[in-house]
Amino acid sequence: MAKVRRAEEQLEKKRRRDARERVLGAVQQSMPKGRRYGVILADPEWKFLTRSELGMDRSAANHYPVSSTETIAARDVESIAARDSILGLWATGAMIEDALTVMRAWGFSYKSQIVWTKPGMGSGYWFRECHELLLIGTRGSMPAPAMGTQWRSVRDAPRGTHSQKPDWQYELFEEFFPHLRKIELNARRARPGWDRWGLESPLAESEHGTGSAA
Predict the structure, then answer these.
(1) Is residue 69 within 8 Å of residue 46, measured between CB atoms?
(2) Model confidence, pTM
(3) CATH class of the 2-209 domain in this structure
(4) Cα(211)–Cα(202) distance, rounded to whole angstroms?
(5) Cβ atoms 197, 209 nearer than 8 A
(6) Residues linked to residue 67 through DSSP beta bridges, in sequence order
(7) Where are the beta strands (DSSP E) in the chain?
(8) What is the DSSP letter of 161?
């Protein structure tokens, strides 16, 4: 009997949460001053200083232009963020402090993280890193996932090309926030339902996908 009651309570909480997220999406769609986003996904071009020739060979700078943490933090991402919004910010283990600095500069408060584990040995100084972190931050009043629907905090996925992230990064936000407007910063491929911005971004279908977030 108690199990049935708990299941009914969880179902009611999920219903209220889904209704709140739907209303939030409708409000953001009607904002008059340009586009504001309830979901912002970012994979910044972090500048990580390597300490060996082997490290330089694997450096991100060999694959695309990189920027200092100060440059990334100075982007006016806050101007495209809805009053109530969520940020997914990719970082490696060595860049956590930098990522948290950027998150705060963009107007978000850190909440949690999800770990992407990759096959193979990886590289690193202290450990052979086989994972990356998707840090989650929010601003305003964002509804958390309904109880019982949360994902596990560790997700396996194969490696792609350099810096390519797994498809579950989109699926996560699409599942929890289907009604909110979404944008990917530093996008390297198109995704239906997402606006996109960045040097390597595919040509967008609208004017909102190719300009600077600043």
Answers:
(1) yes
(2) 0.79
(3) alpha beta
(4) 12
(5) yes
(6) 46
(7) 37-42, 81-91, 109-117, 131-139, 154-156, 182-185, 194-197
(8) S
In the chain, the amino acid numbered 54 is L
- Picking from 194, 143, 146, the residue whose alpha carbon sits closest to that of residue 41 is 194
Q: 189 — alpha (psi -120 to 50), left (phi > 0) or beta?
A: beta
Give the tens place of pLDDT for each residue, 52-79.
444 444 445 444 578 899 999 999 999 9
Q: What's the CA gap between 176 and 181, in Å, rounded?
A: 12
Greater model confidence, 54 or 114: 114
Asked whether the beta carbons of 92 and 129 are under 8 A apart, the reply is: yes
Structure tokens at 62: 């060999």
Question: How far apart (Å, rounded) are the C-alpha atoms in residues 152 and 34?
Answer: 35
pLDDT for 211 equals: 43
Q: Which residue has 């990522």 as its token pair? A: 99
